[in-house]
């Protein structure tokens, strides 16, 4: 036992203080080894065990989030210290949306906020994930904005639409057209990065753009007399927003992810309480460096889901009222658009168990 403790002390203290001895003499190192031996004999195995615990402490959960109201909302939990209260260390990393998905696919983060359709894209072309919560659904922030003179989807037939091909905004356009009895193939799609859509609409190169906030709002501001001719409020449930986690991380640290889920529902309750709206807008707007007044319509275009509202969405069913039905529609679109070749097993991308367990725990109280 003594030899084991001496070895453990020596290994840990060397790892902690090795820089002190860089470029020092062999004599100094021998003195250090003698000190370690004495320290061991005087009972510093306890120190070794404490130091070992420090060195083996859990890494923070690394989560990529980006500029969407249902994801910016995580800032409330960060600023108010709710993760610390729950006993979980997190490292939220602010990124552009596409960059956050790329970081997840590269294994640089443990989880990422993304839409249900884009979670399939990331999995089908890079790295699978599993959604452990549904934060919200788009309720108007995703939109097709028509140039002056384009007042409806019917006016857009035979004309150009600038949007990011294969993304959920493309799906919104197709499903909106189908609902209006219009053949989507009559639109000419001009593949355009979402953050460039306001400038492209202003240039006159296209007759409409597809984008989400803040880009859709910027397009409306930039181009006088432009207007939304289709929004996600016309097809609620076409775009659900998720926290999607690395399956390996979920398996190894399920208890920690449960704590993250608990914090989310605290955030959702906070946001859905009208008495908190001014404080919420102050936090959200500060994260994206605009005024609370400017941010308010963005929040209005996002339907934040509380625990009671999300439970039926987690039930398996066809259609947009179920995350399973909505994701199946996205999967079909992704295959038809050539994003990936074969349909995915969407059940592997959705895990309601943490939310359901949390709901059950509340019933027991």
Structural notes for this entry:
The structure is a single chain. The protein is α/β, with parallel strands linked by helices. It has helices at 2-17, 26-41, 45-55, 69-72, 74-79, 82-86, 97-105, 116-125, 168-179, 197-203, 215-222, 247-252, 254-271, 277-288, 292-300, 307-313, 323-336, 353-363, and strands spanning 61-65, 90-94, 111-115, 130-138, 143-146, 160-163, 188-191, 208-211, 227-231, 240-245, 302-304. The strands form two sheets. The protein has a six-stranded mixed beta sheet with strand order 2-1-3-10-4-11. The model is unreliable at 1-36 and 38-56 (pLDDT under 50).
- Proportion in β-strands: 5-15%
What is the helix tally? Answer: 18
CATH domain fold name of the largest domain: D-Maltodextrin-Binding Protein, domain 2
**Uncertain parts:** 1-36, 38-56
Full CATH superfamily name of the largest domain? Periplasmic binding protein-like II
Please, how many domains?
3
* Major sheet characteristics: 6 strands, mixed
Globally, the shape reads globular
- Helical proportion, percent range: 40-55%
Spatial ordering of strands, largest sheet: 2-1-3-10-4-11
Output the structural class: alpha/beta
**Cα distance, first to last residue?**
47 Å
According to DSSP, the number of beta strands is 11
The whole-number mean of residue pLDDT values reads: 88
Order of helices and strands: HHHEHHHEHEHEEEHEHEHEEHHHHEHHH
* Overall CATH class of the largest domain: Alpha Beta
Query: Based on the structure given, which CATH architecture of the largest domain is correct?
Result: 3-Layer(aba) Sandwich
What is the gyration radius calculated from CA atoms? 26 Å
